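Homework help board

Subject: predicted structure for assignment chain

Our instructor gave us this sequence and asked us to write out the predicted structure in token form, then describe one feature. I got the tokens but I'm not sure how to describe them. Can anyone check?
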Amino acid sequence: MRDHAADPATDAFVAHRNLLFTVAYEILGSAADAEDVLQETWLRWSEVDLAQVRDQRAFLVRVTTRRALDRLRALRRRKEAYVGPWLPEPLLTSPDVAEDVELAESLSMAVMLVLETLSPTERAVFVLREVFDVGYDEIAEAVGKTPDAVRQIAHRSRKHIDARRPRQVVSARQAQAALASFRHAVQTGDLQGVLDVLSPDVVLISDGGGVRSAALRPVTGVAKVVRLLLAALGNKEGRLTAEPTTANGEPALLLRVDGEIDSVMALRVEDDLVTGIYFVRNPAKLTHIAAATPLTLD
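My token output:
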């Protein structure tokens, strides 16, 4: 980028960067691809005559959305050949994101998976309208539809998501307590401790991308989930550590073996119990974690 201190274009882009990244990530489910979209957006932005831009935020969101939609259509073809379940690339988030209930929910693994059931245009409209409260006219420009069509798409998408998204929201204290119990059980291999913190109908989805061992379909029920966890974590060669963190607005564990990132587990907590485990093992989805600064609301 150009010299930040003397360049209004860079100042404007940096001011909106977190917003643009989050828009791209929620449309794509991939932090690496979202970063690529931001680079493409910057290249377009650097060529613009700022004097001709009435609303810089709207312009940047529009360009980001269009670039993300183009990339999403290409990604969908790759996902069709993906080995096993596909999970979003885990995104480290700061505590202030978790405190924004609506944003944290939209970033959660559960909702991100529901977003996968929408068409690319429906997904973009839902993200822009429901998460970021972008006006219908602005969205229409971004997705190439009329405002009336966007209203209909927004209504249909919201109804679709509402019928499928998890309902219950727990407090930060409850989430952290469940995480602490789960972490202790995982690090110590305490079978009873794992059983105590998991819901009887817990669901585990693991994503190895055909590179790391992972279940080829979701695993349901506490007995099956415990067996899978003990097998996956008990076979590590080296010292396993479980670092508490926040990923996608949810409590999570960053697992390392001899200091190297091995996997991420994001947890869905309801009624003080873990009801969902999203176990990302595909190394390609963990490269962003190693260098990432947690996403904030700033």
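Reply (TA_rk): Your tokens look well-formed. For the description, you could write something like this. The mean pLDDT is 89. That's the kind of observation they're looking for.
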